[in-house]
Amino acid sequence: MTRTIKIxxxxxxxxxxxxxxxxxxxxxxxxxxxxxxxPRLIETLVIGKTIDESVSITSRICAICTISHRYAAIRSIExxxxxxxxxxVTLLRTLMHLGEIxxxxxxxxxxxxxxxxxxxxxxxxxxxxxxxxxISGLLLKKxxxxxxxxxxxxxxxxxxxxxxxxxxxxxNEELLKIKNEAEKHFSAVENVIKILAxxxxxxxxxxxxxxxxxxxPNNQYGFVGDTxxxxxxxxxxxxxxxxxxxxxxxxxxFAKRSSYxxxxxxxxxxxxxxLLGDRLTGKAKEYxxxxxxxxxxxxxxxxxxxxxxxxxxxxxxxxxxxxxTLKLKDPEIIKPKKKDGVGTSAVEAPRGTLYHHYVIKNxxxxxxxxxxxxxxxxxxxxRHIRMSAEKMINADTKDITLLLEMIARAYDPCISCSxxxxxxxxxxx
Length: 429
Prior knowledge:
By secondary structure, the protein is of the alpha+beta class. The chain has one domain (42-391): Cytochrome-c3 Hydrogenase, chain B. It is built from 13 helices and twelve strands. The chain has helices at 42-45, 51-58, 66-80, 87-118, 131-152, 172-182, 186-198, 241-245, 269-276, 282-291, 302-326, 373-391, 397-410; strands at residues 2-12, 15-24, 27-35, 161-162, 165-166, 212-214, 227-230, 235-237, 341-349, 352-361, 364-371, 424-428. Strands 3-2-1-12 form a four-stranded antiparallel sheet, covered by helices on one side. Strand 1 (2-12) and strand 2 (15-24) form a beta hairpin. Helix 9 packs across helix 11 and helix 10 packs antiparallel against helix 11. Mean pLDDT is 89; it is low at 10-15 and 415-429.
C-alpha cells in the first residue's frame, strides 16, 4: 500500500511551496520540498548596471533580509575595488545588521514558533493566556525595525548604506536613544529563552547535521567574516564559496539546492551557536552554557532557542557598539580608485550565510552570483522531514501536520504568521 502525505502550501517570504512525502510498504520512499515560486532573475537584472544601481536592485530580493542583502552586495563590491572603509562605517553597518537580526528573530521566535511550543494555532490565539509574550515580540520587532530605519533610511529597502560609507550618518542623540532602549527588552527575551528551553523536544533525529557559518575576526561572535567554518573542522575562504555550496537544480522545484561533499548541511542561528557558542558574551553566554547540549547537533527545532539567545546577544552588543561609535567623527564617503575587479562577500543573514559575488568592469556589473540561506538549507530540511516521517508513519494526520510545520518553521523560512503553513492530504491506496 502506498500512502502520500501532500502538504500543499508552505508560506515563504518569496512565494509558495509544498512538501510531498510518499510512504510505500510502511517505509518512507520519497520526500520532496517543492518551491513553486519562479526564479527572480535578480542576478541577470544587474548585468550592465552600475555598481550603485546593483546594490539597490539586489537588496530587493527580500523585504525581511534587505539589510543583509545590501550589506553583502556592498562588501563584495568594496572587496572587488579594494575600498577600505573607516571604523565608524563598520560599526554603523554592524549596528544596522543587529537591528535586522533582532527584527527577524523576534518575529519568528515570539509570533511564529512560540504558538507551536505552547500549543496554540497562532499568536492571536494565545493572546489571552500569553499577552505579555505576544506584546513583547511585537515591541522587539518594532525596536529592531527602528534601528534599521535610523541607519538605512527606511524600515524596508533603505538606501542610506552605500558603497564606501553612508549617505547620512545618524546623530549622537538618535544613537543614544537606541542604546537606552536595548536593556528594556532583556527580560522578555530571557523569559522566552526559558520557555523554549523547557519544551520537550521530539527525539526523531538520529544523525548529526553538518553546520556552516562565517568565522568573525578576532575570535568574536558575530555575523560577518571572510572565511567559512564547517563542523567537520574545515575552513574555507568565502572566495571558494562554490566549493562548499555546490548549487544544483532539482526537477520538482524552482529553488536551487546546495550540498557539501555530497551531503546536506544547515546554516542559521543553530549553526552559529554550535560553531561559535563559546565566543558569546554576557547573559547570552550564560544561557548558552546552561541550555546547550548534544541534541543541538541533531535536532533542528533547537534553532528556535538559538535565535532567542542571539536576540539577547544583539541587545547586549548594541550599547557597546554605540559607545564606540560616539567616540568617532563622521567619515567621508570612500570613492573607488579602481574600475575593474572581482569580489565575493558573505554575511550572516538571520537565516544563515548569504553569499554575493560580482565581476566588475568599468564600474558596471558583468557577472553576478547570489546564494541564499534557504537554498543551502532545503536538502537538510528534506532530511529532517524524512526522519520525522519515518518515526510517525502510523500517526494521525493532525500530529504529522503539526510536526512537519514545526520542522519547517525551525528553519525559519520567512513565513507570515497569518498564513496556514501546511495542509496534509492522505492518499491511502
